[in-house]
Design a protein that fits this description.
Oligomer: single chain
Radius of gyration: 14 Å
CATH class: Alpha Beta
Strand order of the largest sheet: 2-1-3-5-4
Distance between the termini: 31 Å
Helix content: 40-55%
Bound molecules: D-ribose
Structural class: alpha/beta
Order of helices and strands: EHEHEHEHEHH
Largest sheet: 5 strands, parallel
Number of strands: 5
Length: about 150
């Protein structure tokens, strides 16, 4: 599995922690920025990251901003992206099982490092259940294709 990471200035510290975690887990990733503390605009990083997942360059993405909301709105504008804004471990698991989410979004001003790492670990390990959820995802794809 290869992952693309991106954040704005609000998420940069937490994203570095996540990158360290992926190093420890031996999971390949690229961090496409901003990797900075200067004020930047989250769509400039969230949309390119989501596009790289949608086109298949990366299997999944992890995006972080201050609240997670901006990045999740940005990522979900990209066709084929199912970005989940997650701040608890239960949702991290269920969004993989039910939504087959391909982008995880977190808010660095909302949760701490330890919880974020637990969420990342759970989300990466989660498996899509298929079954009744396939039809629901297909309806999203059909809407995108309009
Ligand atoms: C940046 O201050 C902040 O607005 C951004 O990180 C994010 O929370 C937006 O949704």
């Amino acid at each position: 599995m290869k992952i693309v990471l991106a954040s704005d200035h609000g998420g940069v510290d937490l994203l570095r922690e996540v990158a360290n975690q992926l190093d420890e887990l031996g999971i390949a990733y690229d961090n496409i920025g901003c990797d900075c503390k200067d004020s930047v605009d989250y769509p400039d990083y969230g949309i390119p990251a989501a596009e790289k997942v949608a086109e298949g360059t990366y299997d999944r993405g992890i995006l972080i901003c201050g609240t997670g909301i901006g990045m999740s709105i940005a990522a979900n504008k990209v066709k084929g992206i199912r970005a989940a804004l997650v701040h608890d471990v239960y949702t991290a698991r269920v969004t993989r099982e039910h939504n087959d989410s391909n982008v995880l979004v977190m808010g660095a001003r909302v949760i701490g490092v330890d919880l974020a790492k637990e969420i990342v670990k759970t989300w990466l390990a989660g498996e899509f259940e298929g079954g009744r959820h396939i039809n629901r995802i297909e309806k999203l794809s059909a809407y995108e294709a309009k």
